[in-house]
Amino acid sequence: MKCCNCKHSELEPKELERGLLAACCPHCHGALLPLMNYRYWSEHTHEVSNTETNLEIAQEPAAAKQCPKCRGMMTKYRIGPSTQNRLELCDHCDEVWLDAGEWTLVKKLDLHNKLSSVFTQAWQRNIRKQKEADNIRKHYEQLLGVDDFSKIQTFKQWLDQHNKRSDISHYLNTKFD
């Protein structure tokens, strides 16, 4: 099989972790990981090597990737709200493409035992909701300033926990002109 990044390099077997076999590119260090291998490894092994502190992740191209096995198009899935990295999945072959450094990123985000979840609608919907909430917070922080936003954030947390939240909100929105 040829690498879906380099197009010319042959993929070679390599262990990402002890007992977790993938087909890796010796040139770009990407890896094709069969989810069947991953699921077996995840169910039977709980040991992972230490995550490196210097995390170097290759820039992934914007273009879609073709599965090295079936040549079908792979679908991109966000890993989490705090990273722009996306993992590619071939729905037909049930194989994941990991660009250089992405397995280390998965471990750093403590997702090495939840990798299959990344490809679910619920996971992706949760990421979109988290990103939307972060964007709203950033907007109001920029609009109101850091100090005022911090005070409002503290008040909102208190209000959200209060058993008379509705009454307090109604009072705050009442105009006494």
Biggest sheet overview: 6 strands, antiparallel
Cα(first) to Cα(last) distance is: 74 Å
Number of domains: 2
Order of strands across the main sheet: 1-2-3-6-5-4
Mean pLDDT: 90
Helix residue percentage: 25-40%
Low-confidence stretches: none
- What structural class results from the helix and strand content? alpha+beta
Secondary-structure element series: EEEHEEEHHHH
Describe the fold and architecture.
- This protein has helices at 35-44, 102-108, 121-144, 146-161, 165-173; strands at residues 12-17, 20-24, 31-34, 75-78, 86-90, 95-98.
- With 177 residues, the chain is an alpha+beta fold.
- The protein folds into two domains: 12-119, no CATH class; 125-172, no CATH class.
- A six-stranded antiparallel β-sheet has the order 1-2-3-6-5-4.
- The longest helix is centred in the last third of the chain and has 24 residues, at 121-144.
- It is elongated.
Short description:
The protein is 37% helix and 16% strand. It contains five helices and six strands.
